[in-house]
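Subject: complex prediction, re-run

Hi both,

The earlier run crashed halfway through, so I resubmitted it with identical inputs.
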Amino acid sequence: MRLINCHIENFGRLSGYDRDFTEGCNNIMASNGQGKSTLAAFIRVMFYGFEGEGKRKAGENERKRYEPWQGGVYGGRLRFSDGEKTYEISRTFGSKSSEDTFELRDALTNLVSNDYSDNIGEELFKVNAESYMRTAYIGQNDVITHTTDGINAMIGGIADNEGDLESFEKAAGRLADLLNKESPTRATGSLYRLEGEVTSLRTRVREGSVIVDSIHRLEDSMAVRQQESDRLKEDREALLVKQKQIGTYKDKQALKDRWEMLLSEATERTDEAKVRRVAFPKDVPDEGELTGNQETASEYARICENVSFYTLNSEEENKLSRYADTFADGLPDMNETTVLIRKWREHDKSLADETDKKAELKVLKSELDGVRREAGSLPTKAIIGMVMILAAMIGAVAAILLMPSNVLRYAGVGMAGVLLIGGVLLTIFGIRSHKEALEAKVLDIEKDIRDIEGYISEGERFRREVTESIRRYLDRYGIPIDPSAVTDDLRHLHTMADEYTRLKDKKAEYEKCISRRDALKLTLDKYLAKLGINPESDYVRQLNRLSMDLRSYIEASDRETAAVKRVEEFKAEHDVGELEDIKLMEDMPSLEELNNEIAALTARIDETAGHIRDESRQHDALQEKYEIWEEDQVSLGLKEQQLLDGKHRYKNLKSASKYLTMAKESITAKYMEPLLTGFSKYYSSVTGTSADMYHIDANTNITVDELGGQRDTALLSTGYQDLIGFCLRLALIDAMYEEEKPVLVLDDPFVNLDSERLKGAQRLMDKLSESYQMIYFTCRNA
Amino acid sequence: MRVIHCADLHLDSKMTGNLDRARAKERKAELLGTFTRMVSYASEHDVDAILIAGDMFDTGTISALTRNTVRDTILNNRDIDFYYLKGNHDRDSFLSSLEEVPDNLKLFDDKWKSYPMNDDGSVILTATELSADNNNTCYNALVLDPKPVNIVMLHGQETETKTKDRAEVIALRELKNKNIDYLALGHIHSYKEERLDGRGIYCYPGCLEGRGFDETGEHGFVLLDIDPIGHKIETQFVPFAHRRLHAVDVDVSGCMTTGDMSDRIVNRLSEEDIDSADMLKLILTGDIDIEAEKDTDYLLKSFEENYYFLKIYDETKLKVDYEDYKLDMSLKGEYVRMIEEAADIKDSDKPEVIRMGLMAIAGEL
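This time it finished cleanly. Structure:
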């Protein structure tokens, strides 16, 4: 197979990209990020379609990764030759595989070819897309993968581009570790331990099965005891019924006793009432009427006492007769008497005042005489005025005579004139004012004298009138006036009047009592006669006794009535006939015996209940054990299932381990010889020496003869290791692609090699281009 | 009057099928808690009676906590009558543990037994425990007065005809035209209500709380509103489970990575109404490539924090296209070709063996 050209419509960053491919090595020099990997992917996708469709590795979902950056039709064409024929693959891609289109045309006829389907990659190369990708594409780091593990990895994953695939040994190791870890035979194996737990649980569950029996035995025992308790309760119930029957009988007997007692009591009370009735010869007195007569009797007794009290003695009788004469015209008026006594006191006071007034009159008259004498003398002011006149006159003379100058004389005369005028005025004024003052005083004294004389005269008139009115008053009762004892006489008059009134009232009361006493006696006698009872002297005592008899009779009668009522009530409430028919129960057990039996049964019931409670507690304890046992059962079920699942998994793990080893051996056997042949071919072409010193064992370990033995290639220099690794890789591709050889895409695999190794690599590339078409991407010109 | 019809509480179920010990214990407590919550609901909604149509307990051995809680719940709700019909899972251990049967706990045996459910006897409940002995004869023995509202309670699997010697089978045909207004059933763990005949309906309320992933979806009880005068029964299914369980298939065909599968799971779960308190089982299905990378532990860790419980079942099948390796000249190709031909490996195991070998080679095992 050989690529001829390609046209990329849009694929990742490549758009409208065209490239022709020659046989041998096609060097494409471009810097990183120019689309080298995209072109490599495009070539693969043209053959295989997109990888990673629905796969879990998001990174492998290339459809999205290579969606055109600039939009437009997603896809392109690839022309290649296969033997004699040339084909052109056209693919376009949608957002999902169902939208993809594929077309294969024969390039010569331009007719659609059915030689291959859209799975043309597998049909052409006989390897799947993943294998293709891991072999035909050799990345920068693959070349240095030269250790034994690397070879194994290549065989295991057929040269994983990402370099992250673990080796078969690691996979086998993991399975072996898991088999050990989960081993059912090793003491550390989880299945071994699980089996132990299951065995232990089985034992516990088997042993615990007796718990259910114990619970059931206890429940049976509790049921038996419950039945026993029920039976005892029934027995006790029967005794309680009997106890109730006896109680009923006793109740009825008690009723009968009560009935008889009530009858007896009623008879007794009737007899007593009859005895009490004897005290009343005729009708039984009415209690109210008797009480009224008792009160009458009490009043009668009290009236009799009043008669004695109000009876007048002889002295009182005489006094009453005398006063009756005195006051034949009526009793003195107390108010009038009081007025007269008060007027007499004023009379006495007037008399006393007159004496004082007369003394005062005498003084006034003497004072009047004094004033009149005073009118004949000069007042003081007049005297001073005269002195001033005299002094003025002397002063004037002296001035005229003694003053040296006229001015001074005139001044002295002037001043004497002034003094003279003052003296004249003062003398005149003093004499006039003195005269006026004395005249006013005389008038005042004379007025006072007239007032006092009027007063004295009025007092004398008043006293005469008072004396006359008292004299006339006393005269009415035959009493002469005695001015020295007017007040006492007036008072005595009233004392007599009071005494007369008292005696007259007493006599009237006496007569009233006599009348009342006689009326009461008549009433009481009539009442007693009505009762057929002879009156006694002491009505009160007689009626009190009668009242007590009546009270006794009423009480006895009430008791009789109550007793009869009780009898009637009892009859109304009870069947008296039935009570009278009650016969004594035969073989009646005593209540005490019955109570003892009931108490004994109650004790047994309590004892049984105690047993039931004990067993109930045991039941609860067993219940807890049962619950644990149940949990053990559940746990056992789960563990058994775990064990079963674990063993099944273990078996599958063993199968996986076994078949992985077998697969590895098979694939190793298939590729080992071709690998060694291919390796020798490429190694010789690079180094020009034989590869006899290298060996590949069944485990694809590559060793080198060195120092008398086979040594790990790790002992070789780095350059050799790289070349050995690359040769092995190419040998592997030779071995895998037995029919159609793929186009090798080399993405600058020798970027890290030094110049010496690069020469060897160049020879290898030349050799390789003889059998492979290659696309060699590099970012340097070397 | 109002009546709750529930069944298949399966109290004290082990719950260890999916859960670890601590969570199983917690879930066990939730089952019991849902029962007490239901009784509280009854108390708050003036419900007069609760019908328990069998399988109140999962096994005969009942824990002290469950026994005491059930007993105390009944005793503390004396205004509610509890009609307890034993189912095939129930034994006498609960009843034998009671020193005295509470007045408001009404029981049944293998003979038809009727209780008036209200004061005037206009609503009658009749029930019997089915057994191999009475299963064939009990139908003829059921005679109901047509006047009252008749509720009949049974525990068993519905069939159309009688089946000899099978205890947990209810022949619906035999119960038609028996004056039944409401046939309260238990045994089937999902809600179902159908017409029995011209007069009545039959109903399975399903279990009160889903326990395993065979009991997914809504669970609860049926609330009956009975009008004895109008002779009407209105029923309403009340979802009441503390948690729901979901089993969701996720087709991961074509996924090559765990990430792809995670995306598929996210897309699939977005179609479902699943609460964070729910329990979820994801079932990975479909064919995946032999070289696909799949880490169910990673997926579990990625999603398990979103739910009370998550388990992932891997029911995917490895797809091996031997043609892909036919021209693979590598060790892989050789290995696959040899496995394909291997006579000592079962065909069903071959994909797994291939996967192991390829993963070992890829350094991923």
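The two ends of chain B are 67 Å apart (CA to CA).

- K.
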